[in-house]
Amino acid sequence: MQPLIDGLIFIVDDDASVREALAWLLRSRRLASEHFASAEAFEQFLDQGPLPQQPLCLLLDVRMPGTSGLVLFDRIVERGLLPAMPVIFLTGHADVPTAVDAVKRGAFDFCEKPFSDNALVDRIEHALNASLQALEVQRARRGLAERVSELTERERDVMRLVIEGLPNKLIADQLAISVRTVEVHRARVFEKMEVKSAVELANRLREL
């Protein structure tokens, strides 16, 4: 698997030597990184604005002074930043059960210290690819929501009845309009939503 050159890895660890070693490792694999000495520092960064719209991954130490990695992880979940920013925990042997529990709650993976460079980079690359897929899904949903917002109120009425499976005649009766008017609105809905059938339209709307 080739590295995602435009990916960005955040490193949150209170040990400066670990942060520097990880940054060097990532540079050697042509991966960009930013590092933070505490969970508090990373939260301040998050408060500054939306995350970059590129593949992301967070390497997060479990045990740190002040706010722990686990508490930070819970706050990241609350912010809705998963799965666009997968979290890989860096953990000591004693914290493995805790890290496993975090994975069950949505963390991408964990790597036990001392970790293998190749194994860690491999997991990071998988996380970046997962992030890329999540971003693509988010973009598709935003595009779909924008198309729905462009529909007129009457077109939305017709669309709702179309995806319920009603034929044009029954739609016309329910909305007190002509069948020809239903046909026009139906065609416009299909065009704006970029679909060719009621089944495809229903499937698209489920994505929202």
From TrEMBL:
Highest taxon above the source species: Bacteria
Modified residues (4-aspartylphosphate): D61
The Response regulatory domain, residue ranges: 8-128
Any one GO molecular function term: DNA binding
Bilayer-spanning residue ranges: none
Presence of keyword Magnesium: no
Family annotation (Pfam families): GerE, Response_reg
SUPFAM superfamilies linked: C-terminal effector domain of the bipartite response regulators, CheY-like
Keywords of this entry: DNA-binding, Phosphoprotein, Transcription, Transcription regulation
GO biological process entries: phosphorelay signal transduction system; regulation of DNA-templated transcription
HTH luxR-type domain ranges (all copies): 144-208
PANTHER family to which the protein is assigned, alphabetical: DNA-BINDING TRANSCRIPTIONAL ACTIVATOR DEVR_DOSR
Protein name: Response regulator
Organism: Variovorax guangxiensis
Source species taxonomy: Bacteria, Pseudomonadati, Pseudomonadota, Betaproteobacteria, Burkholderiales
